[in-house]
């Protein structure tokens, strides 16, 4: 009887040993946990920021809650599509912003949907600079940039383009604090949205 018990114990510890070895052998690095600053990610697959051009009037739409929650896993890391920090920051059609009350309220249910599934969600803040056009700018003015030289290559395919992007207006040094502050306000808005 004692021998049988001993034999069972040996079998159990052997099989535990075996399954530990199997786990070690089969651990897929991408699926192992990672500590990213204060965040404990349960795996290393990240949703890259992807502008979707579905945020009409620069306002995130309710369907984005479904889109992002479908891509959420518990402990998974997602970076949201770039969000404009001010009314001069936009350069792509129907991309979201995060500089108005309406925009930040619209982000709330989207961020909640990700958090409900245990995801870690960052807001990407963007100013498009000279990668913009009159149609995205307040009063149809020139986009603003650090330079007054127009971009001569298409951002999408790096091919030369004659006039896709107009010559920007080079900002004055005294305008820079306001631009920095736009990022500060946008970051605060993102936090208020739940990011
Ligand atoms: C449709 C589309 C939208 C994108 N939107 C953004 C964006 O909003 N912000 C950003 O940083 N990158 C954006 N990217 C770049 C992707 O995040 C990038 O392609 C991804 O990280 C993969 O990197 P790779 O293209 O260098 O392989 C976009 C790419 C595509 C194809």
CATH topology descriptor of the domain at 31-141 and 176-193? TIM Barrel
Q: Could you give the distance between the termini?
A: 61 Å
Tell me about the biggest sheet? 3 strands, parallel
Any low-confidence stretches, pLDDT <50, length ≥5?
Answer: 1-8
- Within CATH, the superfamily of the domain at 31-141 and 176-193 carries the name Aldolase class I
Q: What string, H for helix and E for strand, traces the elements in order?
A: HEEEHEEHEEEEH
Overall 3D form: elongated
Helix content bin? 25-40%
Strand-residue proportion: 5-15%
List all distinct small molecules, including ions and cofactors, that are bound in this structure: flavin mononucleotide
| CATH level 1 class label of the domain at 31-141 and 176-193 | Alpha Beta
Mean pLDDT: 91
- Total number of helical segments? 4
User: Based on helices, strands and strand pairing, what is the structural class?
Assistant: alpha/beta
Strand ordering within the main sheet: 3-4-6
Strand tally is 9
**Which CATH architecture of the domain at 31-141 and 176-193?**
Alpha-Beta Barrel
Radius of gyration computed on alpha carbons = 25 Å
Region (Disordered): 1-22
Domain NADH:flavin oxidoreductase/NADH oxidase N-terminal: 30-195
Biased composition (Low complexity): 1-14
Family: Belongs to the NADH:flavin oxidoreductase/NADH oxidase family.
């Amino acid at each position: 009887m004692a021998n049988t018990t001993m034999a069972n114990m040996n079998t159990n510890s052997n099989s535990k040993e075996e399954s530990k070895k199997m786990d070690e052998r089969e651990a897929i690095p991408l699926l192992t946990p990672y500590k990213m600053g204060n965040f404990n990610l349960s795996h290393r697959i990240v949703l890259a920021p992807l502008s979707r051009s579905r945020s009409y009037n620069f306002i995130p739409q309710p369907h984005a809650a479904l889109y992002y929650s479908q891509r959420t896993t518990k402990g998974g890391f997602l970076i949201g599509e770039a969000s404009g920090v001010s009314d001069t920051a936009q350069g792509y059609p129907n991309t979201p912003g995060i500089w108005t009350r309406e925009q930040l309220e619209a982000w709330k249910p989207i961020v909640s949907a990700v958090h409900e599934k245990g995801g870690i969600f960052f807001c990407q803040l963007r100013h498009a600079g000279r990668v913009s056009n009159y149609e995205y700018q307040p009063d149809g003015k020139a986009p603003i940039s650090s330079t007054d030289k127009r971009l001569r290559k298409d951002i999408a395919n790096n091919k030369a383009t004659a006039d896709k992007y107009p010559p920007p207006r080079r900002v004055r040094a005294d305008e820079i604090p306001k631009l920095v502050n736009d990022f500060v306000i946008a970051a605060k808005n993102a936090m208020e949205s739940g990011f």
